Amino acid sequence: MPLLIENCLSWAQDLLNTPSGTIIAGIGVTLQYTLISVSLGLFFGTILALLKVGPYKSITWAAQFYTSIFRGTPLLLQLALVYFATPSVTGYKITILEAGILAFSFNSAAYVSETIRAGIRAVDKGQFEAAHALGIPYALTMRDIILPQSLRNILPSLVNEVINMLKESALISTIGGADIMYRAGRVAAEHYTYFGPLLVAGACYYTMVLMLTAAGGHLERKLRIQELGA
Length: 230
Prior knowledge:
mainly alpha, flat, MetI-like fold
């Protein structure tokens, strides 16, 4: 028991001595990678999903192959390939920001495309048939009728993708991105203690996840009210 109390006091002292401001400053970097990557992932994921449910088998196969590659390999490997292999293959010295956004966006697009594809398949086939009977072109049917319905249905899954990307963005610290985890590691190395810095980093991630969850729940309730009102 005395040893446990001594350890607790030591951890508390480590936490008090941790320069939290240095770690918290990494929140902006983490959010930058997360929001840009998720936005691009949603855009390209929507295109991939439309290709997967389209009438052209060769294009559908190519979209499915893309998804299988990015879902079947670790994100850390994808990030390393983009950052370390791009200069040797193309001669272009890619920045850490560019490498992170490219790797995270490509990965996110693969997962989002499957989510959206499932949402499109869940829409009643009668919607397609009614639009076809009215002479509405396929592209307009998808844009104005099918996609809005599917996006409402898959909103919780999309919120989960944002949360996952927020946490997975910590991988950028492995190539020197100055996010929360990178700054926590630097502080830990400078002060020869890991408990305090890692606890602060965990608190930052947890707080952001709670805020994203609350925002997603609010948006879901708002859309449900609008749907009931319609």
